[in-house]
Amino acid sequence: MFIEQLSESTEMYLKAIVEMSDRDMVAVSRLAERVNVTPVSANEMVHRLGEQGLVEHTPYKGVALTEKGREVACNVLRRQRLWEVFLYEHLKIEWAQIYELACSLEHATAPEVTEALATFLGDPRTCPRGNPIPAADGSFTPLDGLPLSEISVGKTVRVVAVNATETDVLRYLQEREILPGQEITVLEAAPLHGPLMLRMPGGKEVALGMSLAEFVFVK
């Protein structure tokens, strides 16, 4: 698969869009928040990405990847998540740190290195955060789960993936053992989008804000 050389900022935006929503529209304000820039800066970049044929922007609705943009985004995701596996499983880097460190490696990884890394790792299908790793052709199976924020009180679920990217957020979840594979029970949901009260294995109770619960996908 041929992928033209693009700037790090371009790859960052495209990756953010596919992480947030593969096919649907993403509000520019949410995109700006995801990549930690002002809405004005995000709008300017979206305009440039549109000129390159990488995204389609519908005013007042949001932005979506074109097929070309999705191809590039999935290629970046593949590099990112393969490095996450390597850092976590082979270098034993802390789970909360692997996303940030993998980001610094993904932009400098040649296609030959990417595929050699995939072979070395045994072609993993998911990263340590539980998110799918695109195949070499860009295809991948979307997450089969719902955000924890949408789960009814009384339900017991299993965490399948964490879609957060900020190290402090990942560490917050890690310290509370809200990790892929963990079973949790929703005990209570405070009104007005208040925190969820969760019961962890062993009976430990943990409070989790609704905005953080949106990053945790469960089944």
Coarse structural class = alpha+beta
**Numbering strands along the chain, what is their spatial order in the largest sheet?**
3-8-4-5-6-7
Give helix and strand order, one letter per element, not per position.
HHHEEHHHEEHEEEHE
CATH topology of the domain at 146-218: SH3 type barrels
Give a quick precis of the structure:
This protein has 219 residues and is α+β, with helices and mostly antiparallel strands. The chain has helices at 8-20, 28-35, 39-51, 67-90, 98-106, 111-121, 167-175, 210-213, and strands at residues 55-58, 62-65, 146-147, 156-162, 183-189, 196-199, 205-208, 216-218.
Which key terms come to mind for this protein?
219 residues; Arc Repressor Mutant, subunit A; SH3 type barrels; six-stranded antiparallel beta sheet; two-stranded antiparallel ribbon; 8 strands
